[in-house]
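Take one protein record:
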Amino acid sequence: MMVVDASVVVSYLVPKDVNHIASRRWFRQQVADERQIIAPLLLLPEIGGAISRRTGNPALSHRAVEALKKLSNLRLIAIDDQLTSAATEYAINLRLRGADALYVAVAARLNLPLVSWDNEHASRAGKVINVMTP
């Protein structure tokens, strides 16, 4: 099991992304091996917005989000008060954006690695959790 950041999923879904090939290979391997992928519910609006911004195609974004929701090995974590408090602390102490801090909080709560292309995750969150790229 591992926590995945939106950067990896967006890269997987957008062929023009610089990390597309590596993300596609990694993501397909996770699905083939039936490994559980975990993310906060925030993943869905992040994916929808990112794909819509990059492609200019809201319908494509809707299809991508619906396809993600159907993945049997994707587990989405509700954003409750405890997770919000932890994310707030990570955002403040590690100088992370709020959304990035949520992924760190999920990984820390579950004691799992975070898979991300975000350099701030690697350089800042790597102090408290294991951060890796695909």
